[in-house]
Amino acid sequence: MAAILDTTEIIAPAPNRLAILARIVLGRPATIFAALVIAIFVVVAVLAPWIAPYNPLAQSILKINQGPSWTHWLGTDQFGRDVLSRMIYGSRNSLIFGLLSPALAAIVGTTLGVVAGYFGGAVDRVISRLVDLLLAFPELLLAIIIAAALGGGFWNVVAVLTVAFVPGFARVARAQTLAVKQEPYIEAAVAVGVSTPVIIFRHIVPNIAAPIVVLVTLWVASAIRLEASLSFLGLGTQPPNPSWGNIIRDGLNNLFGSPWPIIGAGFAITCVVLAFNLFGDAVRDALDPETAP
């Protein structure tokens, strides 16, 4: 009995992932700053109708290409629209696409990866060849091809960004599923007759969730960048609706008249992308078993 008690005293409790994540986030000044930047942009996007000083679509021939002032903090564009108001409303589109598309891609890609890894055989070969086909194209090029075929529009852009990110999630989910499927508890569940859906949703998905969450946090920044690129090329958010990408495009067409749309939108994209990258690195350090303490 004494030996048994000594053994139980040696066994340490499993680490709390949320506690590890909180310690890493709060222990790094850069990550704290990144979380604050993300929170500020999210609040601005949610409260845009109450924060924006002007209607982002309102034009005025008397206010064309005005410089920064107390009335218009970032000046006006070639149509007399307030640049700050357009940036505030543009943050809604950029953040919605940046958050929604990776989440949908994680659901679709994880489903494909788990099905391919668990069932194997012909199902695995078909899904793997489809994923390899999509991976043959860079994300931006694949997004441009699909966007050119589907056209603009909110859900079209969401579909474009989702398809661009699905292959990465599918590969990670498949690799993790192949590893988890060999574990003894999975073999025991199969031996006692547990149904396949129960095995997948109760035993496999929870054990491969950590790398999927890491990918979601890291690819939010990529989704924002891709959406801005598509809008800049005229394949994303369509004018006159504001988006950081088409604000930069409009500013480029009027560079010598007013450079403030390019400066403001470019600064916003840089801050948000950098903040999400820093936060994603913190999440990876917390959930990755190779780096987690």
TrEMBL record:
Instruction: Decide whether keyword Transmembrane helix is in the record.
Output: yes
List the transmembrane segments.
30-52, 95-119, 140-165, 212-235, 260-279
How is this protein situated with respect to the membrane? Answer: Multi-pass membrane protein
Tree of life domain: Bacteria
Annotated ABC transmembrane type-1 domain ranges read: 91-280
One Pfam match, given by its short name, reads: BPD_transp_1
> Could you name the Gene Ontology cellular component terms for this entry?
plasma membrane
Could you list this entry's UniProt keywords, alphabetically sorted: Cell membrane, Membrane, Transmembrane, Transmembrane helix, Transport
Q: Where is this chain's protein located in or outside the cell?
A: Cell membrane
Query: Which GO BP terms apply?
Result: transmembrane transport
CDD domains of this UniProt entry?
A: TM_PBP2
* Similarity remark: Belongs to the binding-protein-dependent transport system permease family.
Protein name per its UniProtKB record: ABC transporter permease
Q: Which organism is it from?
A: Inquilinus limosus
